[in-house]
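For homework, think about our next protein:
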Amino acid sequence: MTPEALLDLFVLAPVGLVEVDEEGRVEVANLAARTLLTPFTRAGSLDDLFVALGAVAPDLAARVRGFDAPRGVIVDALELLAPGEQRGVHLSLVKVAPGRIVAVVNDAGALATARGHLSRADQRLRAVEGAVRDYAIFTIDANGVVDSWSEAAERVHQWPAAAIVGQPLALLLSPDSGGEAYVHDTLALAARNGWCEEEGHRQRQDGSLFWASTVVTALRATDGEANGFSVVTHDVSERRRVEESLREDASSTTDYLTGVSARRAFFDVASSEVARARRYGQPLTMLLVDPDNFRDINEQHGEAFGNEWLRAIAWVCRQESRTTDVVGRVGGEAFAVLLPSTERSGGLVLAERIRERMQRHVFSGDVQGVRCTLSVGVAEVTDSVISVDGLLTATGTAVQRAQQAGMNLVVGYDD
């Protein structure tokens, strides 16, 4: 940097800079320093810094004389308030060489404002944590060690902060989840994709378990590397209990394995919606969701995992869909989502959310490293697609195109 540039930086710096000798005599001061220190000076004079600040910081000279090191910080962010003023300054004294001291002056009001913003943000976060009863929020470092623990986390997980902060995340998992290997796999996925989501048991301090949906989000440093993670855990034990009860008592309208509409029930509803859409000229879109390489993965990892994958697909479809949408299992591993009053463009957006959420889903246990993807076809009722069978044929064609193009894709049917 040239001397001219350095001079411009000194003169135009937004913070006050003053060079003084060890007696406090001012050698040079920039405009910001003179502006900030005007309330402390008499008749606008800034010839001696120690004299100017004598009423509010009478020991500055003694501190300078008592500092024996050749360089270093003598005073750090000393808050000063001039008589009759509402806003003060922060003063730091730095010895840069024998006989040369630089005073750095900052507007304390700006810092107070920033502190106020942080305080309000913290209060809002605490209010949210207090209002949501079934969600826990906490953070972990890059190695999966808990480094902050909220009141909400204590309430949901029933671990006190003193017992869990500094402990590995694996301590919160069930014994059969895969432990540290599972945590490592989850954090790697979140770091790579920005976030990931999974469902599984969580363990309380007393050893009891509850079923939870967990989202892990990467926190990144300025260089883009993940240096920690935010974890949000939702206690969904009651929902799972209800779903299991529904499966046990399921009639012919409900698929016994996944809890969504069975094929016959789905066709009945879909037929009514197609007729209504055509009668009133309303849009109606269908998604066909097909797992990629399902039979190969099912053979490799077993039927139990295949069933878990089907349940996960159904869960993702329900989570992303509206209450007015209808989710059904229409084939061995195929699911359909019916979207009333929705054009194809809206269906493509939903399909992409389902596809992305599935690829981020983390399975637990022995299959924790398995990644499962979906190919999704989207079609809308048109002059040439006028029935449920027509919608299934169109979406099936779109699914085939997605799988031929490499899988893990969303394709809209265009007749």
DSSP finds 14 helices and 16 strands in the chain.
